[in-house]
Amino acid sequence: MPSEKSMKICILDVNYEVEERGGVEEQVIKILGKTKDGKSVLVLDRSFDPYFYVEPKPGLSESDIETLKGRILELEIEGQKPKKIEETEKNFLGKPVKLLKIFINLPSDVPKFRDIVKDWSDIREEYEHGIPFYKRYVVDRGIVPMNWVSIEGDVIKSELDFDIVIESGKGGIKLLEDKEYPKFNILAFDLELIQKDGEENIVVASFMDNRGFKKVIVLAKNKVRGAKNVLTEQDILKEFMDTVKKRDPDIIVGYNTDRFDFIKLGESSEKYKTPLILGRDKKHMVFRRRGRISAARIGGRVHIDLYDFIEHILGASLSTEVLTLDRVAKELLGIGKENLRWKDIEKAWKGREFEKISKYCLKDSRLTLKLAEYILPQIFEISRVSGQTPFDVARMGYSQLVEWLLIRKAHEENELAPNRPKYDEVMRRRRAVPYIGGYVHIPKEGIHENIALFDFAALYPSITITHNISPETLDCMCCKKKRENKSNMVPGQEHYYCRRHKGFVPKVIEELVKKRMEIKEKMKKAKPNTVEYNYLCNRQYALKIIANASYGYYGYPGSRWYSRVCAESITAWGRMYIKKVIGMAEKMGYEVIYGDTDSLFLKVRNKKEAKEFLNDVNKSLPGVMELDFRDLYKSGIFVLGKTGVAAKKRYALIDSKGNIVIRGFEKVRRDWANIAKDTQEMVLKAILIERSPSKAVKIVRNIIQKLKSNKIMMDDLIIYTQITKPISEYEQIGPHVAAAKKAVERGRIVKEGSTISYIITKGTGSISSRAEPAEDADNYDPDYYINNQVIPAAMRVLAGLGYREEDFLKKEKIEQISLEKYIKK
DNA sequence: CCGCTACGGGG
DNA sequence: GGGTACGTAGCGG
Which of A36, A65, A123, A378 has the most CB within a 10 Å radius? Predict the structure, then answer.
């Protein structure tokens, strides 16, 4: 007997499924929640129907509209007819539009009905047909994930692994004020795999959760200290599922688990015909396709791949440019991985050092858990601001976050969301001539001392708000006649923005910026490192990143609210403001070392001078525009990126605490030989730590000499590249393909997915023709490694110090370049 | 110059 | 599955 009940839950996830009930297919919304006392709750809601809009051709008479409605209602697809039609009116980019809202029985039928009506002559356009059903649901019902709701409904009996399953319906779910989160069970895991006989097997799995639990499962005949040993890979799989079930996590976290660990678990499950059941719904894990990456979904739990979030969102604000678990954990937590290289894991495994690998694996789970405890609160706050589930937030880019927020706000404001651009339109936008971006004050190259960094707080959002930049306020008719536009003309352009009506996008952004200012005020009163302070900090971070992304969204080719003119207007005003500040600095006699878009580096004598400058500037800035002082750096080098063309952000600084801040130098990828990676690292260190460009040059010359005289180990010359399709399918024979073909001719197996290692050897012809599998190569081409590997890697750093390629190649001694030359006194 | 191909994270 | 969502760089031709 179902019993009626009311409860409060914090919503962790929303999803939907199609179920068969009495021979009829029916969609059901599934909400995952958590009560304050730690119970897992599944809420079922069958009261929401999918729909989309069509806009009849303007000018149709009322009877024409009635006929149209009748024709739509008579449509039939596989026995299904539209449920009903409502007439409604919404605003589309500032103008009212009459619409028909067509309700459909099944979510997957929406595109089918839309496909039929899209060619009808009495229909002008269809809208909001591409919005996933569960997203439609949360927007329309005003539900915000990671917030508390009250649920009225019937508790039902269930075989599933939830503490409570409840059926609710329309009006049964109400949003409450946000409060502290309940305590979630968070389980981190990691796998180790070993390749043997061309096959990859899971050999170790480790877990750690936020309730003091840890576990390692190892494939080994004998007992391994600190681990549970099992005899087969299938046993690892079973033990893995058992552990998840017993620990019953709300959130499962890992690092790169969408693209690695869950794929491997899935393959293993297939190999042993063992269904991979990890969810409270007792169903098999599924991959949900999301463009380039598929996301592993586990029913009734939230799988968060921290790497996905770091790659899309957090990475931009880290100083490391390499987003490995080791580097990210070092930067955020101050602890890195066990010092064990990839190849060493294999060696350790072959050497039967099971304990060593267990420890290594468990350390990764620990780092992942600690990282999750740091990062999840950020994801949760972004969920609250954007209205998207943590599962989606962790996998979205900046543009998607802005887009879904705008879609939600559009619904609240009775605005129609513009359609996504079609593929051809995206391509057209992508190919369009780039517009002028931020202003770059060409760096004074070399080494400088005492540099103060200033930047505008949220320059582009402030401009968007101050100048009311929105597609529907652009060159509006209402201001044209009255000539009110004069006060809001884009610098250097013939466009203006409305001064009478607030635009949709600026309104949304202003709300974010105002909320952030309130939070910033609260933060001043709160004690650092308390729960309250950290929460405020994460909330302001969420508000900041979404507000800051709004400019990029106007110019993002896939954008629904794409407006190249708006994007151009924002950068035009941005250039005006930064130039104004640079002009002021110069007038006051400061040397401007470098400036880019919203920031500038000034040479100052001390902090006091920097603060005085800041005060003077801020007195002169209008409205919400504000310059901030970031830090005073002891020294730094500035480098022009690509010479001639756009100057890139490349600089390295030593801050007041002695930390090195590097921008734009790193990133030599794995398809480069070790010799190139190592040379670049040595060059950077010589400059930043020893502050000796001449030593850096000597290092490069030294490596080149060694390459020429055959003194470099072959191992350091190997280039690793993956073969991503069957070899016969390659149209272009790059070096890695040529090497793979040779390996195959010699009887070795190179499949799709193998990584081929090769060396470029001496001889004539193209680079490809001289690529030999590493194990067959008995010589190497010094010129290739000098010109295509070592010099380009070193030049990334040294180009800015005035060196040219020839300087490394000259036979004669290069003139001594002293450090003094680069230090501005 | 264009178009194809790969990387990223993980092991 | 109301699905098909990156940005950049090297190399061959």
Answer: A378
